[in-house]
UniProtKB/TrEMBL annotation:
Organism of provenance: Myotis myotis
UniProt protein name: Cytochrome c oxidase assembly factor 4-like protein
Chain segments carrying region Disordered: 1-20
InterPro entries (UniProt xref): Coa4-like (IPR039870)
Family matches, as PANTHER family: CYTOCHROME C OXIDASE ASSEMBLY FACTOR 4 HOMOLOG, MITOCHONDRIAL
GO CC annotation: mitochondrial intermembrane space
GO biological process, one term: mitochondrial respiratory chain complex IV assembly
Length: 84
């Protein structure tokens, strides 16, 4: 069994190249710093088990963002129903 691990590295956007939809989503979420920390850790250690603090921080950030988004959508839905 091979123990080489991952060969992850953050991709640098080239001029004229379209932005990756996933990168845009993460950037808009406010969790980009946590995401990049996971990527940097993976590039350095090439073992996700050694990156659990970064993975957990990213997971927590995304969970908080999703909760905020749900609350916002619920408020909009309630506002739309009272204005109809």
């Amino acid at each position: 069994m091979s123990t080489q691990g991952h060969t992850w590295a953050r991709q640098v956007k080239k001029e004229g190249e379209e932005e990756d939809p996933l990168d845009l989503l993460i950037s808009r979420s406010g969790c980009a710093a946590s995401h990049y920390a996971v990527q940097e850790c993976m590039a350095q250690h090439q073992d996700w088990r050694q990156c659990q603090p970064q993975v957990q921080a990213f997971k927590d950030c995304m969970s908080e963002q999703q909760a905020r988004r749900r609350e916002e959508l619920q408020r909009r839905k309630e506002q739309d129903s009272t204005h109809s």
